[in-house]
Amino acid sequence: MDKVTDRYFTIQTSPVEPDSDGLPTCRIELAGSFDIGARVELRAALLAAAETGARILVDLSRVRFIDSESLSALSAGYLAAERAGLSFRLTGAVGIVRRVITVIGLDHLTDAPR
Question: How far is CA 15 from CA 2, 27, 65, 106, in A?
Fold first, then answer.
């Protein structure tokens, strides 16, 4: 399990494992505040996940804040997954994070609200 930890954000990438439906999945759990200082690490983690050949699931349930730079990293990860023919989903976004994702038009990548 790869883990990048900074004072205000954490990116944790789990090994590729079959999900509940048996498909290989690379799960990336984000926590904290994602601003320009998180962009490089987030983008690198997402691009590396796209190279695994597994579908990508980004868990945003513990993200308190996300800015345009980190949203750009999410978009880059999505595009890399799409080019590789992989599924890319965002899950767990709540509050302002969910609202921002909706406003910029990435809500088609999110799970239905619970």
Answer: 8, 8, 26, 25
